[in-house]
Amino acid sequence: MRIFLQQRPVAGEPPRFYQLSLEQDLLGGWVLLREWGQPGVRTAAKREVFLDRQDAVSALSKARDSQLKRGFQVMFAQGADDPRRV
Fold first, then answer.
1. How far apart are alpha carbons 72 and 52 in whole angstroms?
2. What confidence tens digit (pLDDT) does each residue in 11-48 have?
């Protein structure tokens, strides 16, 4: 599952982005990867591992909702029918 969010560009700066990816690892756990920043300028990433899929989906939903409240908009979603409801 992947969700790409983006803010509107401000005063000629590249738009800020926030990407969430949820994948199953080789041992059966779930990895939530968060990446954020400005393309070509600076980026950062954080990786969280969950043993249970439901916990991972809950963390992804919470992170997505937090960014929506900060003014980000969903630009692309893969693996979910409705990006606002995971």
1. 28
2. 888 889 999 999 999 999 999 999 999 988 889 999 99
Of 80, 78, 68, nearest in space to 5 by CA: 68
CA separation for the pair 57, 9 (Å, rounded) = 29
Prediction pTM value: 0.84
3-state helix, strand, coil in the chain (%, to 5): 20, 45, 35
Q: How far apart are CA 44 and CA 72, in angstroms?
A: 17
Backbone angles phi, psi at 81, to 5 degrees: -65, -45
Architecture of domain 2-78 in this structure: Roll (3.10)
